[in-house]
Amino acid sequence: MSAFVQSKLLPSWYSIPSLALGVFQSNPGAEAYNAVLTALKLGYRHIDTATFYKNERDVGRAIRDSGISREEIFVTSKYFETSRWSYQRVAEGVRESNRKLGLGSIDLYLLHAPSESFTRAEAWSALEDMQAEGIVRDIGVSSFSEELKLPKPSRVKPAVELHPRFARRETDKLCEDQGIVMEANSTLAFGEGIAYQELPRFCQTEAIGRAKWQSWTIWMSTSSVVGTRSSSTRFRSGHLLSIVG
């Protein structure tokens, strides 16, 4: 585990680094590959990708080329499908992600944005079976709200854009009550920035003299969530680590 970043405990009892590099804004090919390689050299140990990003192969190649032990790096990917979710399609999607990454297994796999309510149980059951096979270690959901929650019962509880302007307090409370780890994607709200008065009081104090994106990162690092930040520049990636370290 990188000395820079704290971690949270998942239901599997494995740790997830509290800050991830997300490659949503990294184009497939050299850009995604170099962003991941640079982040790993700086000390990141959590990389967040998805089928929708179309750069899983580049992420896997960068991790293999980094010279860092696979066991030290936490990888998240996500299944995305615009048509009807089904058990078979989700299971095939997980296997395809694993093949593209080429890392043996995936540490965390998420259902990316909700499909029709009557297909969610099938999709979640597929993830549970992929977990039982050892293809993925932990499973969860992305961009689900309390109103779009999974049908009950399920064998495994899931491990959502979240930032100071979109705090989702009801969802946060639900996750806390259910023992679910919340991961905050787009913690900088795609670079919109934030007024200092919108930050929690403790963040206002620490934010004096910092850029707005740095203040948002302080908010994330002092909360109970895991944060994913997209950055393809060495400067910002390094500064994010210095803030949360």
From TrEMBL:
Pfam families: Aldo_ket_red. Residues 26-191 form the NADP-dependent oxidoreductase domain. Signal peptide: none annotated. One of its GO terms (molecular function) is oxidoreductase activity. PANTHER family: 2,5-DIKETO-D-GLUCONIC ACID REDUCTASE (PTHR43827), ALDO_KETO REDUCTASE FAMILY PROTEIN (PTHR43827:SF13). It comes from Phytophthora cactorum. This is NADP-dependent oxidoreductase domain-containing protein. It comes from the Eukaryota. InterPro entries: AKR, Aldo/ket_reductase_CS, NAD(P)_OxRdtase_dom_sf, NADP_OxRdtase_dom.
